[in-house]
Amino acid sequence: MDKLILLLKYIFFGAVQGITETLPISSSGHLVIFSELFNLEQGNDLTFEILLHFGSLIAIIYFYRKTICELIKNFFSYLFHREKNTYTDFKYVWLLVLATFPIGLIGFLFQDFIASRLKNLLTVGISLLVTALILYLISRMSKGNKEKENMTWKDALFIGIVQAAAIIPGISRSGSTVSASLSRKLDIDNALKFSFLLFIPAALGAMLLDIVHFIKEPTAPDLIIPYITAFLTSIVFTLISLNIFIGIIKKGKLSYFSIYCSIVGSLSIILHFFL
């Protein structure tokens, strides 16, 4: 019975990760909230978080697999053959690299501080309110029509700097990057695509930073099955929520998430003083 309850807890965490990774409501913030609220232990926190994010990573790669293959093909076509019709994708890949740099630098310098000091209900609550404000402001802005061939290094760098703020629990990565893209007048399709493609190198970088910790503190044998279950659950729910988010944002309903983040953020701050 205890093993079943443990397994259900990890399935729950996997579902939370999958749903909140793509929706603009902060996956890291929700993991902190549910851990505190229900006293759910995550075991080796860092290893577990890496696994959950890896599940979301696989799901996003699968979802954008055709785009990724085309980008890779065209990148090398231009690199080696200078085919003019592939230059846009060549530049696009470098823009993704540039946009990844800020979060890589911030993560490398402040990862330990954030893990030890900022994973609490108060920080998450305040950050969710910030996310809510950003989503509200963006929902009130006029739509842009900038396509990927018109993106500049300034667009990419701005989006990357905003993404770096999402290392703080409660600041939504997808919400911040999509909002930053829309504020630079990217069209909705390109804003979504750039945001989620940007998650791939960011997630890979985070896993590389944590690999030493993973080796030094291997997972306990009794947690292997729960971890794998949570990992698979994360993949499934990431794919589901990704489709939901794309549908909602294309309908111009980003303000719905602003309301949600306001409510959850306020409750998190209140709970901080009572738990």
Characterization of the model:
By secondary structure, this protein is mainly alpha-helical. It has one domain (2-272). Helices cover 79% and strands 0% of the residues. It contains 11 helices and no strands. The longest helix has 31 residues, at 87-117. The protein is globular and about 60 Å long. The two termini are 28 Å apart. The model has no long low-confidence stretch (mean pLDDT 88).
Summarize the structure.
The protein is an all-alpha fold.
Protein topology:
Layout: H1 2-22, H2 27-38, H3 45-63, H4 65-81, H5 87-117, H6 121-139, H7 153-165, H8 173-183, H9 188-216, H10 224-250, H11 255-272
Helix pairs in contact: 1-2, 1-3, 1-10, 2-6, 3-9, 3-10, 4-5, 5-7, 5-9, 6-8, 6-11, 7-8, 8-9
Key terms:
single chain; 275 residues; mainly alpha; 0% strand; globular
Shape call: globular
Mean pLDDT rating: 88
Radius of gyration: 19 Å
Give the beta-strand count. Answer: 0
Structurally, the number of domains stands at 1
Please report the distance between the alpha carbons of the first and last residues.
28 Å
The helix-strand sequence is: HHHHHHHHHHH
The structure class reads mainly alpha
Helicity range of the residues? over 70%
Low-confidence parts: none
Largest sheet: none
Compute the number of helices.
Answer: 11
Give the percentage of residues in beta strands. Answer: under 5%
